Amino acid sequence: MIRNILEYLEKTAERLPDKIAFSAKEGEITFAELEETAKRIGTYLARFGKCPVAVMMQKTPVSVAAFLGAVYSGNFYTPIDVTMPKERVLSILHTLNPGVMVIDEKSRKVADGLGYGGKIVVLEEIIETEIDEDILRKIRMKTIDTDPLYALFTSGSTGVPKGVVISHQAVVNLTEWYTEAFDITEKEIIGNQAPFYFDSSVKDIYAVLKTGAQMEIIPKMLFSFPKKLLEYLEEKKINYIDWVPSALCIVVNTGALDGFRPSYLKKIMFCGEAMPTKQFNLWKAKYPDAMFANIYGPTETTVDCTYYIVDRDFADDEPLPIGYGCRNTDVFILNGDRLAEAGESGELCVRGRCLALGYYNNPEKTAEAFIQNPLNPYYPEKIYKTGDIAKYNDRGEIIFLARKDHQIKHMGHRIELGEIETAINSIDVIDSGVCLYDNETQRILLFYCGGEDATQAYILKKLRDKVPKYMFPNVMMKLEKMPQTLNGKIDRLALKEYYDKDGKNA
Question: Do the Cβ atoms of 144 and 170 come closer than 8 Å?
């Protein structure tokens, strides 16, 4: 039984010492080098005792060594991106109160600009620390599988980021399922899109450590140049990707796949937000023999809790299911304190080994989200309320409808904004469409991108066959491109700010 994720690294480094584990334009690192570097860092960090370790570095193969070095020291790590706004970084550090923050030379200027008073060490200055196997052995003897592995900070409703704490056992549970479900072996070359502070990257990293696969860190700027991105996939012989839908949509919306089709791609996964079916169908047409999977899960359920390997055809205006619970994970829909019936919507809830330990240094928010299972009055059993609205279709598959806070009451009707978005995104001239609701004026807002033919009149004409009139957008704003968060998701907050500034009087 795997108790500590370092066992993945050590077993693979023994089996495949000289095989490349992680690579990027900055360089590459083998499994043996990764183990040695992580042990050096861990030996140095052990002097700080039990404490959170913040890691603010450029996204490189050595970043992974820093994460694992924190684990060798008996602690958990929190990735912090150097491009994050200063106030957000300081808010994270205030909540986390790390014993030490690891930076690299390239991040020194950003770190100095924070005005942070805590202990900071520079990777290049500690990486030659002599490994103390005795110290590392003693630390390992005291660790158990419920110890925290990492904390990732997500947005909070109050504006204060919440640190989701994930244990070793939860990541082992994820990794064992993920690598088996999608048949990941040492032959995979994984094209990494997700930032390291975004939970989807966890799958990439630990699948590599377990199986001996290789992960290629794709330069972020390439996602703004789809043609060059596709050429990069071909050059690096990438055969496996697990990206946010926005990244996949950019490729097909620009027609890049019509000009060049990377030949090595065999497995195409998407997670993090709803994948528009129209864009999925465009990908499927180019890769009819590839494995496609729609994967769903909040950070609080250790990345993934449901998945659906697409095994049938879907119309452009038909939502893709998020499928069924991952192995050893129970996913169910509650309507109040009872199970929802077929076709009845409710809140998606999760129980199992996948659940986070809670929010770091935030017992109030933890108690709100991780509650006693209302279906079990007999013994303590925590479930996580996702805040997502879903239903079962007639096949028993779970269909994601919308965020709970995307559910609105409009003109006397309870409406899921996600349903309108699915209809909008199925229209032939639409590249991307997002709906918000202005509670003050009680108007449904549509932000969209598309070609010259994507006029408001044309969109409304097409919507007549798709949704009732009371679900038609009241305000429609055409954009050159959708704003994106650092994770690559559509930035709904930026859209709201744009509307408040330029569209309120429309």
Answer: no
Residue 107, amino acid: S
Using the structure block, give the residue that is written with the tokens 């796949």.
257
- Measured CA distances, 455 to 259, 306, 447, 458, 478 (Å): 27, 37, 12, 5, 9
Task: Tell which residue, 84, 200, 218, has the closest CA to residue 486.
Answer: 84
CB burial of 419-437 (b: ≥16 within 10 Å; e: otherwise) equals bbbbbbbbbeebbbbbbbb
Which amino acid type is present at position 175?
T
Q: Look up residue 171 and give its two tokens.
A: 């990541």
> What pLDDT, in 10s, does the model give residues 469-479?
888 999 999 99
CB 455 within 8 A of CB 439: no
Question: What structural domains does the chain harbor?
Answer: 329-402 (2.30.38.10), 411-503 (3.30.300.30)
Handedness of CA 186, 20, 74, 200 (dihedral sign): negative
Q: For residue 382, give the H/E element and its range.
A: strand 382-392
Residues 231-261 have pLDDT tens digits of: 999 999 999 999 999 899 999 999 999 999 9
